Structure formats: C-alpha cells, structure tokens
Amino acid sequence: xxxxxxxxxxxxxxxxxxxxxxxxxxxxxxxxxxxxxxxxxxxxxxxxxxxxxxxxxxxxxxxxxxxxxxxxxxxxxxxxxxxxxxxxxxxxxxxxxxxxxxxxxxxxxxxxxxxxxxxxxxxxxxxxxxxxxxxxxxxxxxxxxxxxxxxxxxxxxxxxxxxxxxxxxxxxxxxxxxxxxxxxxxxxxx
Length: 190
Fold this sequence. Notes:
alpha/beta, Rossmann fold, 3 domains, four-stranded parallel beta sheet, two-stranded antiparallel sheet, 7 helices, 6 strands, 49% helix, extended, Recombinase/Transposase-rel
C-alpha cells in the first residue's frame, strides 16, 4: 500500500511517515519504486494476541461496582466472539498517571485488544492519544459504551482540582510527618 494510505490507517501524518522513511525509522518494511512512490509492505495476517479487559473504579468503597463492570466487559467480549486472556482490575483516580496495572497493560506487546466499558475508565483526558499510539502498534481499544457517560464538565473539573489538591496536601503532609519523625529521633538520641 502507498505510504499515504499506511499513514492515514495508523493515525499519523504523511509528513511524519515520510520523515521516518528518510531517517530509516519505519517500523515496517517498505520500498521506493523507480517513480519515487513509497510502498509499505505490511504483514498479511493481523497479529494474534491477547484480549484484555480493563476495569477501574475511583475508590475502594466502589469495589462492588468493579466486579459488575468486569461482568459487563466479559458479556461484551463473549458477544463479539473474543477470547479473553487477561482481566485487569484497578482502584484509583483516572487522573493518576502512575496506575501500575494500566501501565503494565499498555506496555505489554502481547495484548492487542483492550476492552473498556467507558472511555473515562481508561483515562478521563487524552483517550485519543492512547488510542492513536496503540493503533500505530497494530493494537486497539474497544469501548463498550461509546457515548459519553455525562456531558457536564463540572465533575471533570472537580476531579482535576481534587487531584491537584491531593498532590499538594499530600506532599505537605509527608514533609510534616518526616519532620516529626526526625525531631522524635533527635529527642531520643542522647
């Protein structure tokens, strides 16, 4: 297929793909014809890999919701004829960029399909970036409920402010605890 078609299919610009060709950074084999056309040679069959379910709730008091979410994801996958190889459950804020289970899932090249109930279960912001990055690797995200859960921006802003406040106050609290521990050690030391 032509380089322009390949780039469009992967969600990148033609200019980026052309630069990769010139720099020798193309992730797939290609050839340049005598007329100058760049043809990309992709593997014929799509890559077989694991289908993973990803379920997340924001707090531990919603663990029952987490289990129900997994059941709905399994029903969706079974209805599509997908063979689930991995189920990942996580409790934590969607704004936390250091969710260990999600990071492991995204970095696992054997996982070719990730199934989530809503886009915001994966991440409330920047879903499109994750989706494009996975698509460029020949991987995909399936969303059970494509429509947004709520169009009201107030809960999103509240969650952002809560996350920022937690980081700020968490640091202060940690500093205070460390200072108290050092003072206690100095008092005990003769």
